[in-house]
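Take our chain:
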Amino acid sequence: MAERTQPPPSKRLCCRHGYGTLRGAQRVDGSSQSEWRTQSPETLLDIAARRVAEKWPFQRVEERFERIPEPVQRRIVYWSFPRSEREICMYSSFNGCGEDVGSSGESDESRLPFRRGIALLESGCVDNVLQVGFHLSGTVKEPATASAPEMVCNVSISFDRCKITAVTCSCGNKDIFYCAHVVALSLYRVRKPEQVKLRLPISETLFQMNRDQLQKFVQYLISVHHTEVLPTAQKLADEILSLDSEINQVHGAPDPTAGASIDDENCWHLDEEQVQEQVKLFLSQGGYHGSGKQLSLLFSKVREMLKMRDSNGARMLTLITEQFMGDPRLALWRQQGTTMTDKYRQLWDELGALWMCVVLNPHCKLEQKVVWLRQLRRWNSVDICPLEDGNHGSDLTNLTNALSQGPAANPDSRTKPHRTVFTRAIEACDLHWQDPHLQHIITEDHYTNCHHQENYNNSLFDDRGWPCEHVPTATARVDALRSHGYPRQSLRLAIAVVNTLRRQQYKQLEFFRSHKKELLHKGMTSVTNLEGWVGHPLDPVGTLFCTLLEAGQGREEATALLMHDFSGTHLLQAPISTFLEEGETFVSLAVETALIGLGQQRVMPDGLYAQEKVSRNEEHLLAKLQEVELDETLVKIFRKQATFLLEAGPYSGLGELLYRESVPMHTFAKYMFTSLLPHDFELAYKVALRAMRLPVLESTVPSSDLSRPQQIVSVVPNRYPRWFTLSHIESQQCELASTMLTAAKGKTVYPKNIHSSSHIFKLAQDAFKIATLIDSLPDLTLLKVSLELGLQVMRMTLSTLNWRRREMVRWLVTCATEVGMFFALDSIMQNWFTLFTPIEATSVVASTVISNSTIVRLHLDCHQQEKLSNSARTLALQCAMKDPQNCALSALTLCEKDHVAFETAYQIVLDAATTAMNYTQLFTIARYMEHCGYPMRGYKLAMLALTHLNLTYNQDTHPAINDVLWACALSHSLGKNELAAVIPLVVKSVKCATVLSDILRRCTLTTPGMVALHSRRNSGKIVSLDKAPLRQLLDATIGAYINTTHSRLTHISPRHYSEFIEFLSKARETFLMAHDGHIQFTQFIDNLKQIYKGKKKLMMLVRERFG
């Protein structure tokens, strides 16, 4: 805390005069300091003085009585200091008296000012303690450390009506909370009051002095502190001696030790400046360095103050809110159109919830509520004020309107106002606590639901005594009672609200049963829950759950609420548990409340943040539920609620009728499933299978189609794809399905309604892994389910792009093989066109199925092997006809062992060669045919490939060059006629001189590496270049060199001259192969010199090399 260095402000004017052992001094741990020591009855003086000291400002006491005896003054002053350590602890640590979270996130209680203050006190560091009236002073010695010398701090504390109103410490510490030295001095006074010197207010002491004593007193005071006070003393003396001075116009003189005046606000000291500075600092750090956690701790501190009924709770919240509203990032985000971070958004939500609690204080004065309402409206009117639902407008109803839960609710009657985080708090200002029935609930333990009133106009209850208030509003009252330190009342109201929810659940079930045939025939109903209770800004289910669970688990506050008033020690005559039904406990009621809320069918809200909040709150509530250990009573509740939810129709997220945009139940159903499974297997699977639905991804059925009674119809405008969390929802759906499969134990469970192929594939893989665990026998039932899921994936991804498709295909074949069923593999191949593309079917599926490893794995006999082989060949031929480009070679390979099938595949290739296949594919198949001993077939295919080829003059590195050379070599080996037939095609397709030259040289030689594959094979005789067919090739080669030379010279640069000269050298070698080649080459060079004489340097190089 930034302790003040100036004198405390409470100095009321005093002009006239009018204190044993401490009783009931409460320590933090709840023990009394000295109550156990005193056995004698308390005197009437102490009883009266203590009551006066708690409630009355001392000025009122002075004005009420003409003269107050000194003993009475002493007892009043004595009892005016705080007697409980709890408030001191609250104002000297972030987390009350619990752990403090440092920047490292670990508990470090020794660093708490409160704990350090206790250590200083217990080590005897507090000295010179003096109480003068309502002012306490003393010195606290800070022991020396390795980094700092010993320090003595002067501490002064002002107090009034059992509250510390001002503190000053010379340590200079800057913080929101009291420093350790203030804590040490305060606790000294609380724990050792008998050791504190007690004096009346200084004005009373001065009144008892005569003139000489007063003069001596003043002179000694000035002498001791002359350097500090002498200028001030002279100034005051001058003013007093001046008759018309302002100081002489006022009766009396200020006394900082005389207590508060009537007009002073009675509240604990809170350094507002430091609160503002700290919040501003945390916000400026933007969530780094644990600032978000520090702000959350500040919010917790506000709640702690509210629970202590400390008015500083609202003051501190106002200061925090002002800093939040002044955050410059709000305007920046609005200007840039970006959203705030998720953690920062959650802090704003907490801010709005805290204001809701503040304005719903049941004992709040009207004037104070008016002030709060005015400032809330001011914040609400600012453009940059964050909206309640994050980024979008809200569809939620007004807080003070009772939401109709009947079947005839009209969704079109909704309004869409501009709602900020403060809107609900503003609306809550209109709520009151004066309803007689509400008062009866929160004040009477023997509450009955048959309580009637004569007049129910503007009542919060119907004519049967049941609450008809908006459920989140009613739970906001519960939270407000809890937050303001009324635990018994909040528990009573919570139980009443839950009883209403259960009654409403029964009514909804009865209505659906009586109208079930009609509703199922129509396939649609009205929306009954426009705003869900899970993910709601007021968190109604979480509030009820925590309130009831704390009572059931006997936590500190819950134990106190069941046995005592908040402020006293009066034992309740009737326990609050009379609210519960027979055999019911607070824990069971809390669990049932959570199940009702989680199972509610509600519309998915708008906006990314609102949808993420639904998911986050659901997971948070389920995490709390999982901490509760299930017993027989809770299992009965689970069975009851599961049955209700399955039969409740449109009111339940697990009912038969589901709106297209209802919040999915996957995560909730997974929890229900795992909880029910050990106790009711069938019911667990009913819940899980029903929850697998995801209608937002399913097409709607026209309402005129009555052939499907459970059609899915959206009753709100279709806003898809506004489901920003759809990916996360689908993952949750997959987790639920995986959980069901894992627990199936030999029973066939086939999850439906999954729309993502990736999630189904993951589910299939999970099922396969579980079914083939190393330490157990394969689960054939689960393997079949895995295979079915895999087949579904194949069908879903057949016509869509999926980067994992090839992995999926390989996995499916592996799974089908692992199932060990011959018929499964055969069926897959016979129906391949519904599962695979032709290339997948031939290259992966068929080849794997007929492999030796599969045959050995399945222990197939000869008949089964032949059956699979026939299916594979049939598949191959079908694929080759459908996609000859990609499947022809695979089809030939698969049909090798069957002559008829092989011939059929070859004919398919020939049919497709002219139109559907390119030269690369044809060359590949041609090489395959030659390799298999069919050189003529390879030759024919190579001829067809050449008709599709076109090599230009500069494509001397084209990948098809090797295929052309191979085709020419094959033709050469087959005979002169074949070579003569291929040469014209080569000349027509290849324009690259170097390639033609290479072919020419190869053709002039024998083919020593060729095996005699045909009767007309070349015997090894050298083919003449002067005769056909090589004469045509030679002429074409020379022509190609001439054309290429001219093309290269058109755009040649000097750095390519040497390369060009080498090219001409190769050209000369080809020219010389002709009988008149020398003459042709000479003429060619002369022409170049004449045509390109402008390229002098190049032509000079040509003359040097070629003359």
Remarks:
- Strands lie at 12-14, 126-132, 135-142, 151-160, 163-169, 197-199, 253-255.
- Residues 487-522 form the longest helix (36 residues).
- Residues 462 and 468 are 6 Å apart (CA to CA).
